[in-house]
Automatic annotation (TrEMBL):
Protein's organism: Devosia limi DSM 17137
Keywords: ATP-binding, Nucleotide-binding, Transport
Sequence ranges assigned to domain ABC transporter in this UniProt record: 4-242
Record-given protein name: ABC transporter ATP-binding protein
GO molecular function, one term: ATP hydrolysis activity
Phylogenetic classification of the source organism: Bacteria, Pseudomonadati, Pseudomonadota, Alphaproteobacteria, Hyphomicrobiales
Membrane topology: Peripheral membrane protein
Length: 376
């Protein structure tokens, strides 16, 4: 399947409403697993529907390879059924009166595919998704995860060049979601299909995607690999949206900043004066360490004394809630904390693990290289 390009795409539903999608430039490569990630109302589903042809553009252009499928200025609009794309909705949309086999071959029958070829395709995709044993059952006789496999099989049977998935796992329980994530990874590797996946679940995006596009209020905030999105968020929104527990943010600008932010300001001013006064500094909970012995804190690390106000077990990890003079931060550890609530500890973090943003919330240019010069 050729590359999909969105150029200056906009969507407005009329009246005085703000754009659902604004000035969106997006490129989806052949065979890519692209996740559009963001909170509800950010424009990710609208973007997916515009790619599918279920929504008209208000402005801009969508190309599939050299073929224009939607262009406002040129008056071009290719209908959904001629775009060679498959769409799987949040609801499975299976025909309740048809067997699983008939649901799976539904698209092939509409396309009048010969019987022998149809049966071969259906058999192959049902085996791949482990639903062949249910071929004579009806959707009501299957679990949610099994129904989701049928919805995917129906789309894969017609061999679309692009598979569009609109939060397909949101109706499943935690175990089934995990299984279906693994299934989607396998499907992508086996069928080499370009997948565009819409989700608000950061873990789905991080574990599935080859590329993530983070959206907020109709605009694309950052495009990158999962590692790039997590390790080098382009702005505060991305940093705060991706990560669980959320990143700790110390606001550095303005009067009356917190005691912990003031301590961070002094640390940066002494060690990295070239940074000036940043707008804010982020610290991932997993990047922080703690100790009851001040002598164990590396000399080049940022550190601060804090009180333990909560210990939250999560299974294989523990979250420590820490406070001092109104400040509250979270730290995660994979070792059982042999301390209790009320204990006093020293937290520390290596300079290279700090995320520095300017006053507008954008990642501060040059800060990463400067902080990495410190060996902690």
């Amino acid at each position: 399947m050729p590359t999909i390009n969105l150029r200056n795409v906009q969507k407005n539903y009329g009246g005085n409403s703000a754009n659902a999608v604004s000035d969106l430039d997006l490129e989806i490569g052949d065979g890519e697993f692209m996740c559009l990630l963001g909170p509800s109302g950010c424009g990710k589903t609208t973007t997916l529907r515009m790619i599918a042809g279920l929504e008209n553009l208000s402005d801009g252009e969508i190309r599939v390879g050299d073929r224009v499928v939607d262009s406002v200025i040129n008056g071009v609009f290719v209908p959904p059924e001629k775009r060679e794309m498959g769409l799987v909705f949040q609801s499975y949309a299976l025909w309740p009166h048809l067997t699983i086999e008939r649901n799976t071959d539904f698209g092939l029958r509409l396309r009048k595919v010969p019987k022998a070829e149809r049966e071969e395709r259906v058999s192959k995709v049902m085996k791949a998704l482990d639903i062949e044993k249910y071929r004579d059952r009806f959707p009501s006789q299957l679990s949610g995860g099994q129904q989701q496999r049928v919805a995917l099989a129906r789309m894969l049977a017609v061999n679309p060049g692009v598979l569009l998935l609109d939060e397909p796992l949101s109706n499943l329980d935690a175990r089934l979601r995990l299984e279906m994530r693994a299934e989607l990874k396998r499907i992508h590797a086996e069928f080499k299909t370009t997948i565009v996946f819409v989700t608000h679940d950061q873990w789905e995006a991080m574990t599935l995607a080859t590329t993530i596009g983070v959206m907020s209020e109709g605009t694309l905030q950052q495009m990158g690999t999962p590692d790039e999105i997590y390790e080098r968020p382009a702005n505060r929104f991305v940093a705060e949206f991706v990560g669980n527990p959320p990143i700790n943010i110390l606001t550095m600008e303005g009067k009356g900043r917190s005691a912990l932010a003031d301590r961070m300001g002094q640390f940066l001013a002494e060690r990295f004066p070239a940074l000036g006064v940043p707008g804010s500094v982020g610290i991932r909970p997993e990047a922080m360490r703690w100790t009851t012995e001040l002598s164990e804190v590396p000399a080049t690390a940022f550190s601060a004394p804090l009180d333990v106000t909560g210990i939250l077990p999560t299974g294989g990890n523990w979250i420590l809630e820490l406070r001092s003079a109104g400040d509250k931060v979270f730290l995660t550890t994979d070792e059982l904390p042999e301390i209790g609530v009320g204990a006093k500890v020293n937290i520390w973090v290596k300079p290279k693990a700090l995320h520095v943003f300017d006053t507008s919330g954008k990642r501060l240019d040059g800060a990463d290289a400067l902080l990495r010069t410190c060996k902690a």
